[in-house]
Every structure is written in structure tokens, then in C-alpha cells.
């Protein structure tokens, strides 16, 4: 089979385009780390620690999941899975709890004068 150079270039372009559209682009090295997009369970734990500066919240996966995990929610809306027994994850959860319950994070209330 003898292919012309133009046909070869076209086939390479078509293959590259097919791969680019089939594989979603990950915008961050922390994006969807270990999270199974088809279920609220994690398939594995992140191998990197998430910096405090990108995390806004966390939650635990349900007891129905194969892997007990803590899911960190990032400020950009993405999520990442971690081992809930890992010390860095415990420290990060404690930090988030302290921020969420600090006086500066509570809404200020203004007393309503009685008539």
C-alpha cells in the first residue's frame, strides 16, 4: 500500500483530532484527582497534598463506596480525593473547620430596634 504524503498528513491530523476530542483536558493538576465522574465515590487517593490556598470545603464519601475517602472541594469547583487517615488530610480538614467557624467567617448580625 503506497500512501501519498498528503494522505499521510491527513491521517495523522485526523488521529490527533480524534484523541484530542476523546480525552477531556485537565485544567489543573488537582482537578478531579481520583474522583469517579459517574458516581460520588473515589477510585483512588491523590498522591499529592492539596495546598490550603485552593481548598474551600470538604465532605466524606458515603459508606456505600469501596474506598472510604474525604473529598476536598477546590475554589474552582473541582474536587480531589484523599485518604481520611492521612495526617495532611486531617490537618487540612482541621484548617477548613477553623476557617468556617472563625468569627470573621460568620455573617454579622445587626440588631433590629423594637418599636
From TrEMBL:
GO biological process, one term: immune response
Matches recorded under CDD domains: Chemokine_CC
Bilayer-crossing regions: none
Molecular-function annotations in GO: chemokine activity
Lineage top rank: taxon: Eukaryota
A single cellular component GO annotation: extracellular space
Record keywords: Cytokine, Signal
Name of the protein in its database record: C-C motif chemokine 5-like
